Amino acid sequence: MTENQSERDVKIRMTPERALLSRGPADKVAENIATEQNRLQTQPKNRMTAREMESTTALCDTFVPSIKASLECSISTQAFYETSASMVGTPEILGGYLSEKLRHPLLWLLRTALWLLSTWYGTFILCGIKSLSGNFPYFQRFSQVEVKHREEIVLNWSLSYFTILRMLFRAMKFLVHLIYFTQLDESNQNHAWKALDYCGPDPGHADQITISNSQSDADRLGPLYQALAYNLRPPQLLLPAQKSKPTTISCDVVVVGSGAGGGVVAGVLARAGYKVIVLEKGGYNARSNLSLLEGPSLDQMYEANGFLATDDMGMLILAGSTVGGGTAINWSASFRTPDHVISEWKNEHGLDLFGSEAYAEAMDIVCNRMGVETGKVPPECESLSTSVLRRGCRELGHKVNDIPCNAPRNHDCGWCCFGCRRGHKKGTQETWLVDLLESGNGVILTGCKAIRVAHEERGHRRRVATGVLCQYGHGSSDMTLFVESKMTVVACGAINTPVLLKRSGLKNPNIGKHLRLHPVVMAWGHFPNCEKKSYEGAILTAMAKVKSKDGYGAVIQTPSLHPGMFSALTPWVSSADFKFQMTRFSRTAHIFTLVRDRGSGTVDSSGNIRYRMDPRDELTLKKGIEKMIRIMEAAGAEEIGTQHCKGDKVRAKSVSSHDFEEFVKTVKGRDYRGLTTPICSAHQMGSCRMGKNEKTSVVDERGESWEVEGLYLADSSIVPTAIGVNPMVTIQSIAYCVSQSILQELRRKIPKQSKANV
User: Fold this and answer.
1) Cα-trace Rg, the chain
2) What confidence tier does 164 reach under pLDDT thresholds 50, 70, 90?
3) Which amino acids are annotated as binding site for FAD, given as ranges?
4) pTM for the complete prediction?
C-alpha cells in the first residue's frame, strides 16, 4: 500500500461535487463499529395497542406460565419453573418486535387475531367452547380464561383443521419462546440459563477481550477495519435523502453484497487492479467485536433479525446479513459440488461451464483460499451431537463421512453460528475481502441498502447497467448515493437478489422462481450421563447419507442449537412438559435430515417467500427421520423424540422392541407438510438461475443478465438446482468464474490507464 493509503484516506471521484470517502483511523473505526452495534441492539419501541398487548401478555403466559416446581429441584430450576414470561418482560419485547422489526406478509393477520382475542366474541370464534365460563355472562376475553383452559386452546390450534389457527400457534410459539430464552438483563444474562446449564457466550471469548488492548488493530477490530468507509465528507453532504440530490461516486465495479458470491468477485477484481465498491446492508461484526450472544447475534448478523419465514410459516429460514454474509455465520462445511450434480447441470441443463477445466480450477482456487481441510476431527473437539451420530452409525454399520471445513480440524467453537471470535473460520470477511483491502483498490460501505440497479437504453433494444442507487445510513445520518460503475454485480442472496431486480424494472419471468431451500427436519435424543454439553465442540464435522437412485437423496448431519432456537423448535404439548424438556437442554443431542429438494418456491417483489414441498421430498424426509431415530437408539439415548407438534417421544431403553418399532412407524407416518413439524432452511438458491436461454433462466453461463448488458449476478440465486449439501464452495466457485467473465469485459472495454481513481 502507498503512504497515502496507509493513512486510510481513499479518494473517489464524486459529481457534481467532490467529496472524500474515508476509512478513519482505528479508534474512529472502533467508535463507529460500537455505535452501529449499539444501534442494532436497541430494543424496538412497543407501539401495540392496549387490546393487542392484553392478548399478547395472555399468550406469553400461556406458553411460559409460572408453575409450581418440585422441592427436589435446584434453586435455579425452581426459579425457572416459577418465572412466567410476563414476570421478565417478554410481552413488552415481543410487542416491540411486532411493532417495528418483524416483516411478514401476514403480520396484519396476527395483529388482527390479537385484537379479536381481546374481545369476548373474537375469543369465542377463535377458541370455541373451551373459552366459556361457568358463570354468567359465560363469554370471556382470552386473558380472562383460566391458564389451564388457555393451554388446551392453544394446543388445539396446533392440530386444528383450519390452517389459519395452525399458523397462529406456530407464529406465537416461535416468537414467545425465542424471545424468552434470548432476552438479556443489564448484566447480559438470561434468567433461565442456569436452569438450562448454559454458560451464555463462549467463556474463551471473555478471555480474548481481556487481552484485546495488547492486540493489533486487525486482531481487535477484524482484518477489514481499514476497508470500512464510515464517513462521507464534507459534512454538508450528510443530508436526509429526501432533501438532497443523490451524491454520485464513480468506480469500475460496484458489488451489492459481501457474502460467498459478492466477496469473491470483489476480491478478484480489486486484485486485478480495478476499483471496487462493495455495498453491504449489514454491519461489520468481527472477532472481539462479536457478542456471541444468541439474541444480539440474530439481530445483528441474520436476515430479518432471525425471524424470516415463508408466507404460511411452514419453513423457518436462516440467512446471513452482515459483512461476509452467510460465510460469517455458517457452520464451516465446505463441500465441492458433487459429481452427479455437475453432470446434471452439464447434461440436462446444457451448461458447459460445469465439468470444464475452468470450473474444476475454480473449486481448487476457492478451497485453497478458504483453507479447506479434510480428515477426521479429534474426538475431544467434536460436539455431543456429532459423537452420537458417529456412535449410532457405527453400531448400525452405516458409513460416516468426515465433512471438509474451512477451519482447522481442532477448531471446536460451538458459537461459530454467531461469528468466529478467533478468525479461524475463513469466510469472505477473512479471505477475499481481505484481498480487496490489501489491493488498495476498494472500500466497503456497511449499512448501505441497494434501492435499484440503474440502466439505460443504448441503441436498439439494448439496455446497459450504469450503477446502483442506494441508501447509506450510519448512526443518525442517512443519504442517497448513486454508485456509478462500468460493471454492476448483484450478489445479495437468493432471497434479496430477485427483489432488487424486480424493483429495478427487470421483467424476466424467471426472476424469483425456482427457489430451492434444502428442507430440514430434526430428531433429538437425551443422553443424561454424557460429559459433553450440547452447545460445545465443533458444530458440523460428520454426516451420513440417505441414498436415492436419481441423486435427490438426503444427508444426515448435526446442527448448532443454543437455547433460543432449541426452545423455538421444541414441541409444546403443555407448559409443564415444555419446561421439563428445556431443563434437559445441555444433554439433548440433535441430528437433522437435509433433503436435496425437487420442489421449488418463489420470491415476489416484496420479498414474500412461498414454498410448497414436493411429495417426493416429503418421502425422503420420512426415510431420514426413520434413520435418525434408529441412530439415536443405537447410540444409547435414554429418550428419543421428534419435533412434531404432538410431541412424539419414546423411552428407548425401557420400551420393548415391538413398541419401539410401533413408535418408528408412527413418526414415519406423520404429515410433514401441514404446519405440524418445524421445517428449517439454512440454504437458499436458484431464484435467478443460470441457463441457456432467457425463456428458462435469468442469466447466461457467464452470469450476465439476459436483459441488461453489464449486469452480472454472482450468488446462490444463479445456482441451476438444489445441490444437496452446503453450497458455499459451489457459490464461490461460480462467482469466481463470473469474475473471470467480468475481467474479460473490463479488459476489453477499459484501457488500463483510464480506470477510475479510488
Assistant:
1) 26
2) very high
3) 251-266
4) 0.92
